[in-house]
Amino acid sequence: MDEMVDVAVIGGGAAGLAAGVTASRSRRSVLVIDAGSPRNATAAGAHNVLTREGISPTELGSLGRAEVEHYGGVVVSGTAVRVDGGIGDFTVVLDDGRTVRARRIVIAAGVADDLPDIPGLRERWGRDVLHCPFCHGWEVRDQAIVIIATGSTSAHQAQMFRQLSENVTIARNTAPEFDAETLEQLTARGIRVVDGAVAEVVVVDDRLVGVRLASGEVIDCDAAVVATTGRVFGAVVESLGLAVSEVRFGDHLMATAIDTDPMGATTVPGVFAAGNVADARATVIASAAAGVNVAMGVHASLMADDIAGALAAHRERSGAAV
């Protein structure tokens, strides 16, 4: 922690660990700061991860940390709360007062999910309350699924999950009424729409069994689907003054995301971002790929400095020799 490293990676999920491995393999000094609270911590397994299908988030993180360390990188537990300085000499401040100096920064801290304020929903999140058909859809195939609508885009969610089950119901909740064309599309595929606000999710023996409406009616189900809003880790982002944009799907705010170029460079020189902080749609494997891509950009950025420094030293030596 006392020496300057080439790269400080804030976040020890798929994106951060992949960035750490890639940079370490290029013989860059790397320090990964891991808060130990991955977005998918409550999920039983990560899916669509080639050769690691269904692996638990805990095991995936453990394997990733071991790979970083195998190539000479260092992983420390902690939460970054602020980044000071600028390109070539950043200081990352942790919540316990420790500091890390680094030439470059990679932000890969993921996002926190905002859920509708419905009793019981948060407790089931990542288990039988879901949001992504590609992440967990196969696991609820042929089951009774209720879409808890929060906007007009909930009809799109319903159509996505209809591919996985013939038993899909939309609880319209706070969403506006669907237009005639949307209703006809839903009806054509056998998706039922039930009016009324959702009061709570019903759980029996640690298993979701239904969604209760304010009227008292219970819609039986095995899984519930809800749109979330993923928000970037604010303290570090604000300390750096990074540009952040809203990502919308129709009338739904999907996420806030750090603005980056194709190599993951942000609007602040020397700071890069990878994973869900920069791409709201990134799955686990896509986040890992983004981490590799960003590490390439970081390495190129550092190499430009290395060349400039070596060239200046070479010219000074050559001048002295003359």
Automatic annotation (TrEMBL):
It comes from Williamsia herbipolensis. This is NAD(P)/FAD-dependent oxidoreductase. It catalyses: [thioredoxin]-dithiol + NADP(+) = [thioredoxin]-disulfide + NADPH + H(+). Signal peptide: none annotated. Keywords: Flavoprotein, Oxidoreductase. It comes from the Bacteria. Residues 6-287 form the FAD/NAD(P)-binding domain. InterPro entries: FAD/NAD-bd_sf (IPR036188), FAD/NAD-binding_dom (IPR023753), Ferredoxin-NADP_redctase_2 (IPR050097).
